[in-house]
Amino acid sequence: MCNQTVGLVAAELERHGIVTVALQLLRSVAEKVRPPRALCLPFPHGYPLDTPGDAERQRAVLRAALGLAQAPGPGPRLMEFRGGV
Amino acid sequence: MAHTSDLSLPVRLFLRAYRWRRIDPVPFTACTKPLEECTVGLVSSAGLVLPGMTPFDGALRGGDCSWRIIPGDADSSKLMDGHRSDAFDHSGMASDPELAFPIARLRELAGAGEVGAAARHHASCMGAITATGRLVKETAPEIAARFVEDQVDVALLVPV
Q1: Is residue B125 part of a domain?
Q2: A69 with B93: Cβ contact below 8 A
Q3: Which residue among A24, B49, B110, B151 is buried most deeply as judged by most CB within 10 Å?
Q4: Is A45–B6 a contact, with Cβ atoms under 8 angstroms apart?
Q5: Which of the residue ranges A24-33, B8-17, B36-45, B75-84 would you say has the lowest mean pLDDT?
Q6: Distance from C-alpha of A6 to C-alpha of A4, rounded to nearest angstrom
Q7: Distance from CA of B145 to the nearest CA of A (A)
Q8: What domain range includes position B116?
Q9: How far apart are CA A81 and CA A24, in angstroms?
Q10: For position A85, what pLDDT does the model report?
């Protein structure tokens, strides 16, 4: 449900002129809901930024999301996080 | 990547019958300036609240569609987990709330000049919403209005 919730909020933000990237833990849900930009992560539920306490790893996820923010349209744009597991 | 097969049988059965809300048409805003000049805001659906805030109501049918403003200078270690779902492991988020609400990580990127600024406010909501009508009609527009007022250019949304 979380994946859908952030996707729906992202769509409204985009309608207001704000660029969004929705992190997604379930690719199947991302494909159904279709947030404008989705970064699919190879991590389990409860761990969207991977490892507790690993600041560098967490920044890497954010950097990947920010990179996707610059992707041109049209949406939906769906990208896999390639930072390894 | 998480899979629905990781979830408990009751949750899998629910999801099998659930009608996901499809975004159609898909709105799309192009990023027209470099990230180094962008103000970045966060939206977390982990149901996190700061001390003194009203917790999310896990008993509401269809899910709690309220949301909380989290100040940009908040100490993420003070965030408290209020997510109602027992379908995932909460222990990681309990030991490090940055895992779900990376406020400090974002400030670090802003401090290093990788983004222009971290937003003045971020948004916390509850992800476990099955009845999405109010989320779409009220919650999302309210968050959008706040981010527009704060001149947020880019929003990163984090499910849990």
Answers
A1: yes
A2: no
A3: A24
A4: yes
A5: B8-17
A6: 6
A7: 8
A8: 32-158
A9: 10
A10: 54
Is residue A16 a part of any domain in this protein? Answer: yes
Could you tell me which of B100, B98, B38 has the C-alpha nearest to residue A41? B100
Question: 3-class DSSP state for residue B84?
Answer: coil
Strand partners, B46: B126
- Tokens representing residue B55 in the block: 């917790």
User: B88: closest CA among A37, A64, A2, A36?
Assistant: A2
Average pLDDT score over residue span B124-150: 95
Rounded to the nearest integer, the mean pLDDT of chain B is 93
Domain limits for position A26: 2-80
Query: Rounded CA gap, A57 and A23, in Å?
Result: 15
Q: Which residue of A has its CA nearest to B67?
A: A9
d(CA B52, nearest CA chain A) in Å? 24
Q: Supply the pTM of this predicted model.
A: 0.95
